[in-house]
Amino acid sequence: ASLLAMTEKSALLAMTARGTSLIALPFMLAALAPAFAATPYLRSCDTFGSGFFVVPGSDDTCLRIDGYLRADVTLASTGAQAQPRFNSAAALQPLLASAATQDASAFTSRFALGVDLRSLTAFGTLRAYGLGDFDAGTGAATGLERGFIQFAGLTAGRAESFFDFYAYGVDMLDVRDSYAPTGMLAFTGALSNGFSASLGLEDPNTRALVPLALSGMGASAAPAGAHWPDLVANLRFDGEAVTLQASAALHQTRLLVSDATGLQQAASLGFAAQVGARFDLGVLTSGDSAWLQAAYADGALNYLGFGAQGLGGATLQGDGLLRPDTDVVVTADRAVVLTLERQRGFTALAAFSHFWRTDVRQSILLGYATLLPGTATRDAAWTVGGLGRWQEWRAGSELEWTPVAGLSIGVEGEVQRVRQGLAGAALAATPPLPPGARKDATALVGRLRVQRAF
To answer: For labelling alongside 389, which of 47, 93, 100, 354 has CA 20 to 30 A away?
Structure first.
């Protein structure tokens, strides 16, 4: 009986304690609620614009993650060799017999992921940015497109060249432009009244082109290691309705020249200059804009957009057509006097973007480019690889529809036209062109692009 009484008493005490705890629980949670509310796990950061949030565990570092997934289908006419490439100017070349091996279509997908990390310091904003591209399909290439640190006017890492201006400003149409992310160490200083100036050292290998030697002189040319980085500078004005920029670059080409007397190193210093203007045409429709840009290069043709899509020297030999992309030509060997001749070029573009509706935008682009031979290469006969004048026109339009935020569907079309002047003084003696080769060529390039951005 005594044991039973003790058991009943213990049970009663346990029930009483449990009831007290249940009654007190709401009051305990109410007391803790302010502590939870005061320390949320994720907080937005408005200091640097929309999309940033405070890094958990930090009070002054903000992070934004963005990117896109893009799918492209590109088609090119077979009347000329216009190789479709992802995010780069198609290489329009008059058709050769080897063009039969080139695809006339390209299917490419890209996933790009960007991370933007910023914090305020006594010296201004400290920023670290990285953008990686993951490609699949025709001409796919995966790698770090951009990865740089900015602090107190300093930019170090892989970023867009300070020479660039337009750089796909209103569309993704193919055009000759200087756009080229590159390794750099640069400084930007803010001047008064919206002006700024930048000066930097950039990776010379980004702009390097293979040198050539006239085939009839019995010598050959090959790239040599770079000794100096490219020196790039710009002066920029950012106003409410207009942006202006003038930029310049110095680029050294080093080469090895081999002939019957041996091997010799040589170097040539080239340069490029560019001016550009962007106009905000919001008075027409919100978001409208127009771009103008012109550039000239002497011994630094990659700053005009020539380079990876060019032909090799072997294609040139014996044809006198189809200029390769090169900065320097060896025109006399060491047995006489070793002479180098820089090749020159000029490009210009005009672009206009207009919103027909808030979800429908159209852009129009016109581009012109020309390559000019030096005196020796112009006068050399076509049989020894003399170079003639090369001209290109491009005209295209893009229509983009944004049915929902973050999704865009675009249709692009472009006409490309190339005209070439044969080298050599005695053009009447020029033999028939190789089978399939054309002096002039026209090509059509079209693309369907679907992109989801975040």
So the answer is: 100
Q: What angle do CA 47, 49, 50 make, to 5 degrees?
A: 125
d(CA 82, CA 177): 17
Contact 236, 195 (CB under 8 A): yes
Say if residue 150's pLDDT is above 80: yes
At position 154, the amino acid (one-letter code) is L
Q: How far apart are CA 145 and CA 133, in angstroms?
A: 6
Instruction: State the distance between the two ends of the chain, measured CA to CA, in whole angstroms.
Output: 75
Q: Is the dihedral of CA 290, 354, 416, 70 positive or negative?
A: positive
Phi/psi of residue 227, each to 5°?
-100, -30
DSSP code per residue over 50-93: TT-EEPTT-SSEEEEEEEEEEEEEEEE-TTTEEE--TTS--EEE
Query: In this structure, is the dihedral angle defined by the CA atoms of residues 372, 374, 378 and 384, taken in order, positive or negative?
Result: negative
Whether 339 and 330 have beta carbons less than 8 Å apart is answered as yes
| CA gyration radius, the chain | 31
pLDDT of residue 355: 96
* CB-neighbour burial class of residue 351 (10 A; exposed 0-12, middle 13-18, buried 19+): buried
Give bridge partners of residue 62 from the DSSP assignment.
Answer: 54, 118
What are the beta bridge partners of residue 188? 198
DSSP state of 428: G
Confidence (pTM): 0.83
How far are the Cα atoms of 77, 124, 201, 202, 276 from residue 235, in angstroms, in the given order?
Answer: 41, 21, 16, 17, 11
Backbone angles phi, psi at 284, to 5 degrees: -80, -65
The total number of residues shown for the chain amounts to 454
Phi and psi at residue 18, in whole multiples of 5°?
-65, -40
User: SS3 for 385?
Assistant: coil
Burial status of residue 84 (CB atoms within 10 A of its CB: 0-12, 13-18, 19 or more): buried
- Residue 213 and residue 103: Cα distance in Å, rounded? 31
- At which residue do the structure tokens 């003084």 appear? 425
SS3 category, 128: strand
Can you tell me the mean pLDDT for 252-261? 87
- Contact between residue 388 and residue 320 where contact means Cβ atoms under 8 Å apart: yes
Comparing 407 with 83, the larger pLDDT belongs to 407
Tokens of 56: 């958990």
Name the 3-class secondary structure at 271.
strand
Residues 6+ away with beta carbon under 8 Å from 330: 211, 212, 213, 214, 217, 219, 221, 255, 257, 266, 338, 339, 340, 341
Higher pLDDT, 197 or 426: 197
Residues 347 and 176: beta-carbon distance below 8 Å:
yes
Rounded CA-CA distance 431/38 in Å is 85
